[in-house]
Amino acid sequence: MDKITHEVRISHWKQVVEQCQARPEGQSAKQWLAENGISSKTYYYWLRKIRKLAYEQSASNTTFQSVGAGNAVATVATEPEAPVSFAEIPFSIGNESSSGLDSCFQPATVIKMGRASIAFSNGASPELVASITREVLNHA
Question: Are 70 and 32 in contact (CB under 8 A)?
């Protein structure tokens, strides 16, 4: 099978899987497939092929989004999102130091608003500082 034929088939199979997954609540996949003239064996073959293709593409560093719910979930390639990073923020109650911060953390900058303090190290990116400041000001 040539590449174009393969891509057209996969595209059609994805549409069918997405339509089946978007079926009315309370309607089983078996009922939807019967109403649309698709055999269960064919549908689950298509679903298996789509999942296999998605898995192979994930090995090449592409991100995917799940489509549908329940036991039959299709995976569709999507554009990669910006990386997400998390940082642990120490919080202590009771015997706090005079600055309210853990003694092992030496901040480069501390912003105080009322009883709240936000401390940043030199490694904090300008985007992080701006984002946190914006959120604090929006919720103040």
Answer: no
The CA distance from 124 to 129, in Å, is 7
**DSSP secondary structure letters along 48-75:** HHHHHHHHHHHTTT-EEEEES-TT--EE
Structural element, H or E, at residue 5: helix 3-21
Strand partners, 113: 116
Note the pLDDT tens digit of each residue in 75-120.
Answer: 555 555 666 666 666 666 555 444 554 556 677 878 777 777 788 8
Q: pTM above the 0.70 mark?
A: no
Q: From CA 104, how far away is CA 92, in angstroms rounded?
A: 13
